[in-house]
Amino acid sequence: MQFESERIEYKSQLIDDIYKEVIAFANTDGGIIYLGIDDKGNLVGIENVDETYTRLTNGIRDAIHPDVTMFVRYVLQDNKVIRIEVNEGSSKPYYLKSKGLKPTCVYVRQGTSSVPASPEQIRQMIKESDGDNFEDARCLEQDLTFDAARIAFQRYGVELSTEKYRALGITQNDLYTNLALLLSDQSLHTTKIAVFNDESCTAFRDSKEFGGSVFKQFEDSINYLALCNKTVSTIKGIVRTDNQDYPEEAIREALLNALVHRDYSFSGSIIINVNDSKMEFISLGGLLPGLSTEDIRIGVSQPRNKKLAEVFHRLRLIESYGTGIRRIFKLYENCSVQPSIEVTANAFKIVLPNMNASGAIAEVVPETAEEKPAVITPQMKTVMDYLAEYGEMTDEDLQELLNIKKTRAYLLARQMNENGLIDIIGRGASKKYRLK
After folding, report:
1. Residue 224 in contact with residue 243, Cβ under 8 Å?
2. Of 68, 106, 411, 415, which is the most buried if we count CB atoms within 10 A?
3. Using an 8 Å Cβ cutoff, are 60 and 19 in contact?
């Protein structure tokens, strides 16, 4: 009789320990287990072959996940020994069903022993079985919660129930996917924001790192970047004009682009750098093969993370037509300094110029008190288009349309009224806006 080896294992009797040996062989290169032979190679035999055989086959079927039975063959030798032939499985990693997909329950063969697999070995097995699509692959962490995601879904009026997990791509075969990890409170990826005192971004003024669900990162990052977005006021005669450093919608679109389209197979963070002249959004993962920066600018949409993009689309956070980047450039159309896009093999960066620092905002100068301003800002144009179609709007409609806060909405409406673009009807809760 041969000694135990990398592909041979002896067991004198049937105990639960045998399942980890089957798992280890299925996760590695296959092997043979002899039940009824001790670890020194001595034949001890099985007392009740029929009962043992039934317990063995049922146990391997019920204790191991995914189903490994198609890769296992049983041979009875001399009515005393059961030879268990285990082939390498095609749905690795196999693990103890009762304990779930975690490193302590996934085994591989190492020499003459079956040992727990390392996290890196498990990731490699998942990649080989599920392919390179990160969001569809089985998640190594299965103890996930979705508190932030439920709040986000509820805020945007979309139901998030366990019955919808499979349709959304959160689960496959009753296991959480990497998409689930990104939406969960346990998400490992983060967003880092740094504010600098200098143009070269080397002298820190402040920094923050936001983690958790991508929804929480989005909200936390938006709120922090709003603090970095100063408003500069100019007064000419009786007219006061307020201009923010960056269009709020441009910040929102650049952040969403980084969150939705980054390559999450890299563990690094999204980086946002802010200084007095610009705001940079840097995400891991270059353009998909065949695309150029010009394609992106004209609105070509080819999402890297299709299911994550679909979730954000369902919540109406993004559109599915590649309009985000085009909208950013539209917001800067009256500026002398334009946003820029830089792409490398593994990174994507979009730079938003500080409108006030560059002196790039087109100046609004009425020729007479009765005339409309020579230049209408993109936000004003959006409001006017809405009023042209629907006739009137409330403060709440204005805030929702432009995704701005109450104070900004008040200042914008007042400026448009002073410039002769809209009428303000009523006061307080009953106040409405109409075109002149």
Report:
1. no
2. 106
3. yes
Helix (H) / strand (E) element for 23: namely helix 17-27
- Which residues, other chains included, contact 325 with Cβ-Cβ below 8 Å and sequence gap of 6+? 253, 257, 296, 297, 299, 341, 350
Which pairing describes strands 64-65 and 95-96: parallel, antiparallel, or unpaired? antiparallel
CA distances (Å), 166 to each of 91, 139, 160, 169, 171, in order? Answer: 19, 14, 11, 5, 5
11-51: pLDDT as tens digits: 989 888 899 999 999 999 999 999 999 888 889 999 889 99
pTM score over 0.70 = no
Spatial CA neighbour of 328 closest among 400, 408, 396, 257:
257
Task: Kindly provide the residue ranges of all beta strands, DSSP E only, lying in 392-431, ordered along the sequence.
Answer: 392-394, 422-425
Q: What is the pLDDT of residues 44-63, one digit of tens each?
A: 999 889 999 999 999 999 99
Q: pLDDT tens, 385-434?
A: 889 888 899 988 888 888 888 888 888 888 888 888 999 988 877 889 99
Token pair for 19? 């399942």
CA-nearest of 155, 167, 325, 170 to 255 is 325
Least Cα distance to 148 among 137, 139, 133, 160 occurs for 160
Which residue matches tokens 């820029």? 340
Count other Cβ atoms within 10 Å, centred on residue 55. Answer: 12
User: How far is it between the farthest Cα atoms of the chain?
Assistant: 108
Structure tokens that stand for 175 in this block: 């296991």
